[in-house]
Amino acid sequence: MGRFSVLTLTDAAAARVNEIMASRDGALGIRVGVKKGGCAGMEYTIDLVTEPKAGDDSVEKNGAKVYIAPEAVLFLLGTQMDFEVTTLRTGFVFNNPNQTSACGCGESVELTAASPESLRQMQGAA
Question: Does 119 or 14 have the greater pLDDT score?
């Protein structure tokens, strides 16, 4: 059985992560997580990584490294991370199958942890 990725990166997201890594001395990548907050209940977090933490999962694409906080794995399972530039907003976008709703401003989301069945399906596909 192969190893599956908790999340995937688009080319645009990988390019932006590489830009961030190149602009900061000692940067090894970024860490994606979730925390309680906002009107919908949870918010995505993104932090610079200069030293990986024990238990971090990671994905890599085109040299870009994204670490996933262990407490966020079940909330991010199956997520595609993208980077978009629009007239109103520039930033990372998470296309997350575990997201059940979002607040009107888009700053917070409601997430449900992935089911054991989802995990089995991803393991079988790897």
Answer: 14
Q: What pTM was estimated for this model as a whole?
A: 0.80
Q: Which residues of 7-17 are buried (b: 16+ CB within 10 A; e: fewer)?
A: bbbbeebbbbb
Cβ neighbours around 111 below 10 Å, total: 24
Which tokens belong to 98? 């575990």
Q: Which phi and psi (to 5°) does residue 9 adopt?
A: -110, 140
Summarize pLDDT for 29-79 with one digit per residue, the tens.
Answer: 999 998 887 665 778 899 999 999 999 999 999 999 999 999 998 889 889
Domains of the chain by start residue, with CATH: 7-125 (2.60.300.12)
- The end-to-end CA distance of the chain, in Å, is 7
